[in-house]
Amino acid sequence: MTELTIRTERTGGHAVVLVGGDLDYDSHGRLDDAVGAALDAAPEGRPSGLVLDLADVTYCDSCGLRVLLGAQRRASEIGATFALRGAHGQPARALRLTGLDQVFG
C-alpha cells in the first residue's frame, strides 16, 4: 500500500489537484476533502475548472472511483469544468472496465 499524497495548485482559473499513491477505502475521504477545499477556498473566488491529475496514482478501488464521480458532480454544480488527466496502469483499467472512461471523456 502506497500512502496517498495530495497537492493542490492553481493555474489560471483552474484548481489542479495532483494525487499520488493508493486511492482506496482507507484514503478516499482525504481526496474528497481536498476536492471540496479546492472548489470552495479559491482566493479569487470559485475556480472555473477542476482538474484531477492521477499520473502518480498507483491503485484505485470503487471508493476512489466514487470520489472521482463526486468531484465531477460538485464541479458541475458550481458551473466549473471537470477533467481527469494522467490516469494509467490499474487506475486507467478500473476506469475502462467500469465505463467511467467514457463518462469522464
UniProtKB/TrEMBL annotation:
InterPro entries for this protein:
Anti-sigma_ant, STAS_dom, STAS_dom_sf
Q: What is this protein called?
A: Anti-sigma factor antagonist
Instruction: Fetch the PANTHER family from UniProt.
Output: ANTI-SIGMA FACTOR ANTAGONIST TM_1081-RELATED, ANTI-SIGMA FACTOR ANTAGONIST TM_1081-RELATED-RELATED
Record's family?
Belongs to the anti-sigma-factor antagonist family.
Every copy of the STAS domain together lies at 4-105
Cross-referenced Pfam families? STAS (PF01740)
| Species of origin | Actinomycetospora chlora
